[in-house]
Prior knowledge:
Number of helices: 16
Distance between the termini: 51 Å
Helix content: 25-40%
Mean pLDDT: 84
Largest sheet: 6 strands, antiparallel
Strand content: 15-25%
Number of strands: 32
Amino acid sequence: xxxxxEAIVIGTGQAGPPLxxxxxxxxxxxxxxxxxxxxxxxxxxxxxPTKTLIASARTAHLARRGADYGVMxxxxxxxxxxxxxxxxDAIVRQSNQGVTDWLKRTPNVTLIHGHARFEGPRTVRVNDxxxxxxxxxxxxxxxxxxxxxxxxxxxxxxxxxxMMDVDFLPExxxxxxxxxxxxxxxPTKTLIASARTAHLARRGADYGVMxxxxxxxxxxxxxxxxDAIVRQSNQGVTDWLKRTPNVTLIHGHARFEGPRTVRVNDxxxxxxxxxxxxxxxxxxxxxxxxxxxxxxxxxxMMDVDFLPExxLIVGGSYVGLEFAQMYQRFGSRVTVIxxxxxxxxREDEDxxxxxxxxxxxxxxxxxxxxxxxxxxxxxxxxxxNVSCEEEPRRIVGSHVLLAVGRVPNTRDxxxxxxxxxxxxxxxxxxNDDLSTNVPGxxxxxxxxGRGAFTHTSYNDYEIVAAxxxxxxxxxxxxxxxxxxxxxxxxxGRAGMTAREVRASGRKALVGTMQMAxxxxxxxxxxxxxxxxxLVDAETKRIVGAALLGTEGDEAIHxxxxxxxxxxxxxxLQRTMHIHPTVSELIPTLLxxxxxxx
Length: 597
């Protein structure tokens, strides 16, 4: 039997299905032929299954290294290879079926199973049928090389393909293997690493990694690891300054005595240029009852070497949520109390809802709309009265952490002696080059209110240095807002939110993709969240992005770089990305933009 087509695609590897779909959607009658498993090497015995196995191997590796993070196991770590293989098979099956269903539901595309052989330049035989088409695309991939090795024919051997069927562990393959520095990024992310290790160890069975006993968190050991890493960073900066020519490191509290004069201890220092970089500290709100109870802040939390039984966290934004997940994973019961109607109110509502869903799935409780808030001592610890009307009105915990914002360290600087202006919140007012109202005085970092992150502080340095030393005009307003919420999975953010784009009145496009579609997320068993990109409809420039999902804090940079270059989104859409990664799906997302309503 001879069948006529306008195009034939031989092979369903990564290039074949999207090409067939494009041809079919263009109205061209297309046949796509596969002799074995739809999806090719990547889906069936390459990228997806191997990275799925790597996720199980990494879980076992982290479990064995648990003590390094303060996570203690009472028994050995065992790998259940049939379970590992079953997980791999399930993820492969999902991917394989996804490609198959996609092809079958595409108009003008016919999926044919069988081995294709050419019988002429326009003729292909598959089974008992002959297919004819003016255009034929070959996409048949490759297979493992079997070398001409003496004796190989007499012994059993494995290749990357047959390795996918292994459900045992070969004996010879068993291989056992400022604020930021002191109480901000480095110590908190170090603690998060310990919490994630405990979380993965508890989830070990999901990956085929079996533990014979419970997972215990040794909080003194967790703190000791954090302290060691902080000490290394702190000492590194200290040594760097001390060995730099013409730089003198002085310890003490500095206060202005004039626009060119600063007193430190008993010494008076004078200079033509003074740079203020004193950072900020946690806000302690004027909350009824707070003076009568012990409380923690992000700084004092760094001294905790025990596990709170029930940690109440006041504040449902970035700092509060990172500590919430961290301590829930360490083993505390955690309740987050937020006065607003939703978490991380700066973000769009869909992001807030997704973040809450992710954290609730781990057991964290939330009390939103806590508009009538006070605290008091209780027989069981500390009670938070969270409402004058709605139930529950009272929540009792063992400890309370305040995470309601930060204020600048400007109260005792003597700024009035220098004439330096601050705003109503105490932040030093600066121009676009970070200079203050007093010539010769600049303010950098959290103290100027132009950013609240380590990366914005470092960028402040770059701006000041470029203007003063390189004669290179750089401005604060040139930078694109970018930050991350370091829960797990993280939220990477760049540019405007959808709410801000709508308020700007511009015509915009939006692309959204669930992380469940991302191979890297499925391989790791971390499919929560979504990716969203906003594009100006007229200029085609990316104006905002939110990537909530595994590696979202890293993948956001490919968008951020294109935004900084002022390039159209099509540049990124047409760039080849490495597979399997999170970033590789961003061009696909950009190919399905719709008007932002």
